[in-house]
Amino acid sequence: MKLKQALLYIGSFLLLSLMFVICYYMSYLHALNNFNKKAIERKEQLHLMLENEEEPLDESAGKNTDIVPAVQDVIRVLPSTKYILEIYDMKSDSTTRQELNPPAHLVGLTRQEVIDYLADYMRDLPLSEYNKGLISAELIYFSDEEIVIRKSYNEDFLPYRYYVVIKDGYIVVYNSDLKSIYRYTSIDAKSLPEEDRLELIQGIYVNSLDELYSLLESYSS
Fold this sequence. Notes:
Blueprint: H1 2-52, H2 67-74, E1 82-89, E2 94-100, H3 111-123, H4 127-132, E3 134-142, E4 146-153, E5 162-167, E6 170-175, E7 181-188, H5 194-202, E8 204-206, H6 209-220
Parallel strand pairs: 1-4
Antiparallel strand pairs: 1-2, 3-4, 5-6, 5-8, 6-7
């Protein structure tokens, strides 16, 4: 009897879970279709504006200066937009291209909003991008059919990768962002010569793992 009740509960739970997944998926498809429909309508409006646009006269040139911003506000990144990511290696002077689906954080953005996003991205780089030597992220081409973004890398421009310092009496290694910790050590700062302690109080920048391990080994010996 208890086994039948348990199976009944499990079956009911699975059925409700399946119904929830189906409802969620149908809602997602409905929202996506509405978004694409509105995007197509905006695209048709844009083409109509461009077809009806007349050559500006000298005396009316000032009136037509509002056309470009209005057009740019209409064009947005769609879920169907082709996303091309160019990776430029400055050391080897080589470029690779990847064709991807547009990232969710770019969908719905205008040209200026994409430019602003890239500027914010460069101001607060992820640690992985910094360590690879990301120099710039640029918008190369923009339309509702295709966008091209180029990321340029050069590891030689990295000033450092690690930061060694004393924290709570022990030597700690930070990543190059000076926020996340790469490694805790058991090296007690009190056991070091005064000269080394003074350097560590100010902080020591290290550019490679070999240099880091050599430095830590010198403190351990």
